[in-house]
Specification:
single chain, 21% helix, 6 strands, 3 helices
């Protein structure tokens, strides 16, 4: 595995009804690189978002779904999701404030 830089770790935010309800508790959801670990995710969030202090990181691996196209069966790409809990005194992430 090539070394991941902090800007390669976070791929995109997850915008769902459930993830929006977590924002009241300062818990944010992101899709991350499948080979990133918790310490890399924590470092990436603190460097990318000014004033954010990470309390904890929980990760979830999501396997690819089976898809058919006629007789050919394949799988979609696997994903990794990270739930990032911020500390009470940290600033909110501006990416989510306008939603």
């Amino acid at each position: 595995m090539a070394s991941l830089q902090y800007y390669d770790v976070i791929l995109k935010p997850v915008i769902t009804e459930k993830s929006m309800s977590f924002m009241a508790d300062k818990k944010y959801t992101f899709y991350v690189h499948p080979e990133a670990n918790k310490s890399q995710i924590k470092e990436a969030v603190e460097k990318m978002f000014e004033g954010a202090k990470v309390k904890s990181v929980n990760t979830m691996n999501i396997g690819g779904k089976k898809k058919r196209r006629g007789m050919v069966v394949g799988k979609t790409a696997k994903k990794k999701k990270a739930y990032v809990q911020l500390t009470e005194e940290s600033k909110d992430i501006e990416l989510f404030t306008g939603l």
